[in-house]
Amino acid sequence: MKNYKIDPRISLINDRIKKIKNIIPVISSKGGVGKSLVSSALAWGLREYANTALLDLDFWGASDHLLLDAFKYIDGFPEEDRGILPVDIEGLKFMSVIYYTQNKPLSLRGIEFSDAFIEIMSATRWENLDYLIIDMPPGLNDPLLDVLKFFRNGKFVVVATPSKLAVNVVKKTIEFVKEQKYRILGLIENMVMDGKSTLRDIADTYGIELIGSIPYFNDLERELEDSNKLKEGRFFKKVSEMSKYLLEQSK
Amino acid sequence: MHEWAFAEGIIKTVEEEAIKNRFKKLSKIYIVMGELQGIDKDIVSFALENLKKGTIMEKAVFEFEDEEMEFECRNCGFVWKIDRNGDIDELIKESIHFVPEAAHSFISCPKCGSKDFEITKGRGVYISRIDGEL
Q1: Which residue, A30, A97, A144, B46, shows the most beta carbons closer than 10 Å to its own?
Q2: Contact with chain A for residue B112, Cβ under 8 A
Q3: Is A239 helix (H, G, I), strand (E, B) or coil?
Q4: Domains in chain B, number
Q5: Taking residues B29-58, what's their average pLDDT?
Q6: How far is A85 from chain B (nearest CA, A)?
Q7: What is the per-residue pLDDT across A159-169, written as a single tens digit (0 to 9) for each?
Q8: Do A5 and B123 touch (CB under 8 A)?
Q9: What is the phi-psi region of residue A181: left when phi exceeds 0, alpha when psi lies from -120 to 50, beta otherwise?
């Protein structure tokens, strides 16, 4: 006889992620640097070449569904079939907690975030994937700790802006991930004004690749009004070019 | 079926535990079903009976125990539960079934209105005991 309180979902997560070749969390401890846009655009670009999924882990501020117009592709809840099937958005598999909160505010403490994360990861049947892009919330807290814990083979992409405030925080993000011996695929610089990159030095200092720089697009807010316009727009096109770097890295 | 995922998780977890604890044969597995998530016991049971074939628990019996839900407000300390069959609509019930933490989007403390509460009991499914021969 053995008494426990064992969570049956954990071993299921390990089983599900075995079928994913590349898990790429898109991180930055600083909010407002464009992680959601970069994650969505990277996933959108990759889906043209490889079997790709996007997971919005920003439970508090989920927004990828707006960028991808994700409710257009589903009626009600994601389909159930021996688990939950991610929503198919023109070839991109997508999952977000937003399907279960009916777009209401979701306030969770860390431990509750972890439980919801485990629930979604154990239930979602991604099946065979070349890439799982994870849009992370800002911070060095529970979401990042959970991702580090469950995805030992995660390959991280760091997003930052040239702002002094973002640079200060992004250095800590890079140090935190690197000192635990996780792999950083590179840095993406967003909202670059007048072609002035400030993150080249940071990338060199930490020995990581500067995957690319995204200019500050004045008309981005207008593109956001229409998902189709956004997917065809300059921001997505620019980031799609960077997705080729990820393809090269995982050859 | 979401329930099928739980059954798969239970089978894999028990197999791992059997190896870890050097069980040669398993006779009974105790599974606690939290009330909040509203998991269909019959479907889990059916799935387990199918999935156990050819495993160390082929001859084992699965025993289910229900656990009542309980919420505790972190703001005022009030303890309460909801009636899944009466207090909430189907959409909310379904949302909580898939992700119990979605309760924080729909439920507030009946005393002070805070959404900062803990699900202290009956959240979901767990394995509470494994009987077998070493």
Answers
A1: A97
A2: no
A3: helix
A4: 2
A5: 95
A6: 10
A7: 999 988 988 99
A8: no
A9: left
